[in-house]
Structures are given as structure tokens and as C-alpha cells.
């Protein structure tokens, strides 16, 4: 609250400060676009050219704003940035967006231009001073021009075939980095924990003991799968992406796969908990089959046969061992 109180309100800014704020915003956006370009250059060169062009446009507008400031107020530009003004739009850090894929970066760039235009339009509508109103209107028009320029640059650098190629490459990278290790983890967590959980359940008919065994098996398998995935391939030669991301996907999904049919044993009544656990196992196996069909292009019925058959065999083994 103290930090918010120290920030200036937009309506309290002078015309010079508004112009300085616009200059710093243009500079920040140019840096963001260049960051996008560098992150995409190796895998998506056409999109990198798009963001290079958008950064150049931001530089051009910043230069025009600096010329205007020099004519009106002199060469000394006040230091005022987005974080100094209450209610001013913020930008997400480049590192946060870059990890979400090509489409997310494109969407973020479009949102950047829309946010700036809307802000300047609404600010102009609330301003009674004619000079300030004209300045804000000019900035809104400049941001609208940025959107038109972005469209022109996209047409120049991203024809339909190029965009399709980059989208396919992005989808393939998503599958290799997230889906494949996550699916392997989900299969391991869902199937491999069936035997110890249901063996314990039928051997003891104690729901709390079964729950503890299930949690231990799930967490242990998740840690093991996560470290194994991360350590098995650094992604440099295989192109499978960051080992940290793959290890995280594998470890988390392994744990969730096991916890799914362990959590029902928090219910004290044994047969109620077991019936719910059976139902969850059924949905887990069908979910695995669906993911295989959706992302790995495995024929659906073959995926169902493989997963359901394998899961049923492990489940039966656990029940037989526990009942014996």
C-alpha cells in the first residue's frame, strides 16, 4: 500500500511527463520485441524477422516522440516509467512469455499493441486540456498504426506456408518437451502404482495404511521419473527441449497418476473407497488412451487395447497378491 501511495496518478502527470512516459514505453516495447526475436531466431526465423521489424517501428516512433519533446521541453527527458504511474498498463517479463510457445508470444505482441491504444484513447477521453488531449490522441493513433504495421510485417514475413511450418514445428516441440514425458509419467504413475496400492488394500483392508502406501509410491515414483527424465537427455542433440521442463512434466504427471487412485482411501469405509478407486483407474486409463490418440497419433482403439490391457493385468496382479 505504501508503494502504491508513492506512485503518481496518470491524471496528475504534466504534459512533459506524459511524453516522457510514452518515450520510455516505446523503448521498453522495442526491447521486448527484440527479446522475442532473439528467442525465436534459431527455430522460427520468419517470426524473428517479424519481431525485428516491429522493434524497428517502436524505435522510429520513439525517435519522433523524442524530437517532439526536444522542440517543446528541451533535451532533458524526465525519468518516468510504467511502474511509476498508478493504473498504467504493465508488460509481462519476456522470460515468462517465451516459455509458453510461439502462439503465446504472438498473442502477447498483439495484446501489447491493443493495451497501449486503449490506454491512450481512454486517457484522451478523460482529458479536458486541448494540448494534452491532442497528444494522447496522437499516441493512440500511433499505437493503432503499430497494429497495422504488424499486420503488414506478418504478411511480408509469414506467408501461409511459412506460418504452417512454424506452427507444426512449435507443436512438435510442445509434444517432445511436455506431452511425451508427461504421458510417460502419467502411464507410469497410473499403472505401476496399481499393484502396490491394491495389494495393500486387499491384504490389510485398512484404508489409512493403503492411503499412506499409495502416497509413498506415487511421490517416490514421481521423484524417480522426474530425475530420470531430466538426466537421460540434455535435449541438445535430440531436440527434445529443456531437461528441466521434461523432468518437471514427467515427475508431476507420475505423482498425479498414482495419487488419483490413492486419494479415495482417505474414505474410512473400505469397499466405498475401493469402488471409487476402481472408477478413477478406469478414467485414468481412458485419459491415457485419449492423450496417445490426440497428441501421439496412436489409433484410438489400439491405444485403448494397450493401456487397458496393461493396466488390467497390473491391477489383477495387485489384487491377487493382496488377497493371497
Report what the structure shows.
By secondary structure, the protein is mostly helical. The protein folds into 2 domains: 2-158, Ferritin; 165-323, no CATH class. Helix content is 79%, strand content 1%. It is built from 12 helices and 2 strands, in the order αβααβααααααααα. The chain has a two-stranded parallel sheet with strand order 1-2. Helix 7 packs antiparallel against helix 11 and helix 9 runs antiparallel to helix 10 (243-260). The longest helix has 33 residues, at 160-192. The chain is elongated. It starts with a helix and ends with a helix. The mean pLDDT is 80. InterPro entries: Ccc1_fam (IPR008217), Ferritin-like (IPR012347), Ferritin-like_SF (IPR009078), Rr_diiron-bd_dom (IPR003251), UCP035918_rubreryth/DUF125 (IPR017040). The chain crosses the membrane at residues 273-291, 303-322. It is found in: Endomembrane system. It is a multi-pass membrane protein. Keywords: Membrane, Transmembrane, Transmembrane helix.
Core attributes:
elongated, Ferritin, 2 domains, 324 residues
How is this structure best summarized?
By secondary structure, the chain is mainly α. 79% of the residues lie in helices and 1% in strands.
Strand portion, in percent? under 5%
Uncertain stretches: none
| Number of DSSP helical runs | 12
| Biggest sheet overview | 2 strands, parallel
Overall geometry: elongated
Strand order of the largest sheet: 1-2
Instruction: Summarize model confidence as the mean pLDDT.
Output: 80
Total separate domains: 2
Terminal CA distance reads 64 Å
Number of strands: 2
Structural class by sheet pairing and helices: mainly alpha
Rg value: 28 Å
Please write the string of helix (H) and strand (E) elements.
HEHHEHHHHHHHHH
Task: Please give the share of residues in helix.
Answer: over 70%
Amino acid at each position: 500500500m505504501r508503494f502504491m501511495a508513492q506512485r503518481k496518478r496518470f491524471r496528475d502527470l504534466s504534459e512533459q511527463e506524459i511524453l516522457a512516459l510514452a518515450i520510455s514505453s516505446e523503448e521498453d516495447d522495442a526491447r521486448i520485441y527484440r527479446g522475442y526475436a532473439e528467442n525465436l531466431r534459431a527455430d522460427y526465423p520468419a517470426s524473428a524477422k517479424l519481431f525485428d521489424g516491429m522493434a524497428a517501428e517502436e524505435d522510429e516512433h520513439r525517435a519522433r516522440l523524442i524530437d517532439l519533446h526536444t522542440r517543446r521541453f528541451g533535451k532533458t527527458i524526465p525519468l518516468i516509467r510504467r511502474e511509476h504511474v498508478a493504473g498504467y498498463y504493465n508488460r509481462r517479463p519476456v522470460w515468462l512469455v517465451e516459455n509458453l510457445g510461439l502462439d503465446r508470444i504472438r498473442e502477447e505482441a498483439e495484446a501489447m499493441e491493443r493495451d497501449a491504444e486503449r490506454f491512450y484513447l481512454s486517457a484522451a477521453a478523460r482529458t479536458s486540456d486541448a494540448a494534452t488531449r491532442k497528444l494522447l490522441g496522437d499516441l493512440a493513433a500511433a499505437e493503432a498504426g503499430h497494429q497495422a504495421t504488424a499486420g503488414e510485417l506478418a504478411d511480408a514475413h509469414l506467408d501461409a506456408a511459412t506460418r504452417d511450418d512454424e506452427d507444426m514445428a512449435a507443436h512438435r516441440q510442445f509434444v517432445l518437451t511436455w506431452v511425451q514425458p508427461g504421458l510417460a509419467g502419467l502411464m507410469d504413475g497410473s499403472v505401476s502404482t496399481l499393484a502396490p496400492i491394491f495389494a495393500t488394500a486387499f491384504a490389510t483392508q485398512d484404508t489409512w495404511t493403503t492411503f499412506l502406501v499409495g502416497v509413498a509410491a506415487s511421490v517416490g515414483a514421481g521423484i524417480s521419473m522426474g530425475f530420470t527424465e531430466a538426466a537421460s537427455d540434455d535435449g541438445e542433440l535430440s531436440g527434445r527441449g529443456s531437461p528441466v521442463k521434461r523432468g518437471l512434466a514427467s515427475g508431476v504427471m507420475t505423482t498425479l497418476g498414482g495419487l488419483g487412485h490413492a486419494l479415495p482411501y482417505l474414505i474410512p469405509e473400505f469397499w466405498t473407497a475401493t469402488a471409487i478407486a476402481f472408477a478413477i483407474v478406469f478414467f485414468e486409463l481412458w485419459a491415457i488412451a485419449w492423450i496417445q490418440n490426440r497428441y501421439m497419433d496412436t489409433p484410438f482403439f489400439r491405444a485403448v487395447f494397450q493401456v487397458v490391457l496393461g493396466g488390467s493385468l497390473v491391477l489383477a496382479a495387485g489384487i491377487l497378491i493382496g488377497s493371497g
